Amino acid sequence: MSNENIIREIDEELRSDRVRKLWRTYGPYVIGAAVVIVLAVAVNEGWSWWQNSNSARSSDQFYSALELADGTDTAGALKALDEVIAANHGGYPALARFREAALLAKDGKATEAIAAYDALSSSETNKYLRELALLLAGNLLVDNGDVAQVEQRVGSLVGATSTFRNAAREALGLAKYKAGDLEGARQSFEDAVNDPLAGQDARARLNIYLGQLVADGVAPPPAAAAAETPVIVDPATAAPAPSSVGDAPALDTTPPADAAPAAPADAAPAPDAPAAPAN
To answer: Per residue in 170-184, pLDDT tens?
Structure first.
């Protein structure tokens, strides 16, 4: 055996010893990390399955409650919605709470509905759902409360940055009109109707409100409406318009007598035409 072979065998033996030593030192950690990764994946998949299963169950319960709400079983619908809220899976509990408040309002329980919306506005973390709850409570208070209560709910929504600003201005204007504050109502309605992002239907309603305020003598008519106001003509003094072309008076095209050119007094007679030559 040559020296090179001996040296090679010694190197291989040393390398093997080094690998075995490293494995004895770090092998348990590698195995533990692999087990942790497998368990984490399994737990994550199990959690996702459980969440999806519960969300699907909440979805079924929620839509079953909506079917009951569309019918006449309000009590059954409220019970089903309470079950969705108690399950507390996904976004269905918030939807169920909004629907529950709407059912209470529909059933004539305005005070309970307002309390439900107030609870939503104080517990929801989503900004838009929180503002929607405030707006719906304010709408109910227009007929079931006073201006202060309405303003307490929608006062923070009338600013230019709120998504629900025009609906909030409309609700506040109606509350002020009901309370007799016609000038305040006019200001709220004008703020909403002058918003370039106001919807067509909302703008039509607001113009009706402003028209009523004009009739009450609170606000002048809008400039555009005044410009489009037709002029009323008394039919007794106005000449009747011709009903057809045949009824229209004929146009006199005869020039005045003094405008016609006079014939010259000494006009020479026209020369006789030459006679035809005889054959």
So the answer is: 999 999 999 999 999
